[in-house]
Amino acid sequence: MLNRRRILTLMAMAAAAPKAVAHSFKIGEIAIGHVWGLPSDMRETQVFVPLSNRGQTKDELVAARSPICSMIELRQNNRYDDPPLTSIAVEPAKPVAMRKGARHLRLIGLSRPLKSGDKFDMTLDFLNAGEITVEVIVEDGSGH
């Protein structure tokens, strides 16, 4: 049996441990991992959406929208001279990674600054699976 001192020690250790931020979503055969975005005091930011297809048929992320911005572009990289993607393929058994400097969603025309810890909704539209609204958590990106 745990004594009071040991219980208090365990509680203190749990409180001091880094918080695991794990939230995921699913629509049809599409699994969506931890969705996060970068802080920004500018008019745009980047959001990262890990995707995997657990089915047998290819799907595509064809659009995204959020009430906190005027538009969202699907991007292959950070280069402004490259046109946005028309879709992001989500092939069966081939996870789609998104990360800084590479594939991401660019939110343009932010209605407010975003700081670490903020949360907002974003709707993802898949060609076959349909639409799902996910929660985006703003993080500094050091853990990614």
Any overview of this molecule?
It is a single chain. The chain is mainly β. The protein has a single domain (21-138), classed as Immunoglobulin-like, CATH 2.60.40.1890. Helices cover 9% and strands 37% of the residues. The protein is built from 1 helix and 11 strands; from the N terminus they run αβββββββββββ. The chain has one helix at residues 4-16; strands at 25-27, 30-32, 36-37, 44-48, 51-53, 59-65, 71-75, 88-90, 104-108, 119-126, 130-138. The strands form 2 sheets. Strands 7-9-4-3-11-10-6-8 form an 8-stranded mixed beta sheet, with no helix packed on it. Strands 1-2-5 form a 3-stranded antiparallel beta sheet, with no helix packed on it. The radius of gyration is 18 Å and the shape is globular.
Task: Spell out the key features of this protein.
144 residues, three-stranded antiparallel beta sheet, eight-stranded mixed beta sheet, 37% strand, globular, Immunoglobulin-like, mainly beta
